[in-house]
Amino acid sequence: MGAEVGRKCKPRGANLRKGKEARHGIAADGRRSANSCSSGSESTKGGGGGAPLSVDQQVEWLLSHLQPCETADRRRQAVMDQVSGIVSSYLGRQLFACGSFPLRTYLADGDLDLVLFCGPCPSSADHGHPDHELLKVSSALCLDVLRQNDGAGYSSVRNVNFVNARTRIVTCIVGSLSVDITVNQIGSLAAALLLEEADRRVRDHLIKRSVLLLKAWGLHEAPRYAGITQPVFGAKATGLTSYALSIMVLRLFALNACELRTPTEVLLAFFREYSDFDWDNLCVTLSGSKPLSASGGSGVAGGGSDQHKFAALVSHLRSKIAQAKEGAVAAAAGAPPERFQHRFCNIQDPLNDTNNLGHSVSLPVLRSLISALAKGRQHLEALL
């Protein structure tokens, strides 16, 4: 499955960019610098000082500056190659990209997510266990730092940490980019494939662009609407993970594919759907809202079996995951429990009925998110 993701989710320069826009005014982090763009007031006017731009045009202008460019892609690829080279030299194993990087839906300060596969866990609790492999990854990175610093060179790797979380990870910073490494997370690669293939079935990369727009809204606008200082997205801030957000967006297309044509329409649909959602009693699934009271021992009833626009794709990927787990790769350490665990925010992983993608969301953040969604809806409806 790792090789399949490498083929299908490799960052492509034309994916989310349009012509010459990607070649001018690139900042040091790979994005356009503010100084290279028109001023904020000019962004709402036509190029010749004519009529104000429509809301759709303003959103497209914003997306043209949010979307990753080739410089940003190359920077992340270079960091991935560096970390992968270190791990390969010490462990002899390859790292794969997952998350927002291969999908090109990352913001400038987003993490780089990598996954290592070490094969099935033997009966012994020692060699080959994912936790031990993660410790080896941590040791390899630390040893490389020592080796570089003892010589004439200087290592750009720093702040190496082993995080004992629900899914155990090793984190580090390379240059100014935060890197997260997990072991045997087949679901992470399958999730990237799901979103990549779903996006290809919708014109103009509308799914990816909508996810990117909502990430920026959650980082910059939602806290202001909710009167808080922290973002509502990101597990580290007890908010929605990137994958959870993506599934919430994908659900809109699964249920309303014919009605959504622009990122603005998706944004408004997102506001309307989830500001009024009954989070206390319902679970978000690709096939619709499912009552939590009907959840069974293996997940939310009907969550993975109902028909929707992407049902065939989901079924195919679920079978691939099952084959991989029965074959060369075992289930990861910290894998989801056998039962769907109810939380304040309940979002079912379409690829794993028992995985609640909203597990990281705290009640205060959920309340802030609902408030921000409601106010965002009012504001956008007033503009339209």
TrEMBL record:
Record's compositionally biased regions (Basic and acidic residues): 18-32
All residue ranges annotated as the PAP/OAS1 substrate-binding-related domain in the record: 203-384
Question: Coiled-coil ranges per the record?
Answer: none
Q: Where is this region: Disordered?
A: 1-51
Q: Where is the composition biased (Basic residues)?
A: 8-17
- SUPFAM superfamilies according to UniProt: Nucleotidyltransferase, PAP/OAS1 substrate-binding domain
What domain of life does the native source organism fall in?
Eukaryota
What InterPro entries does the record point to? NT_sf, PAP-OAS1-bd-rel, PAP/OAS1-rel
Q: What is this protein called?
A: PAP/OAS1 substrate-binding-related domain-containing protein
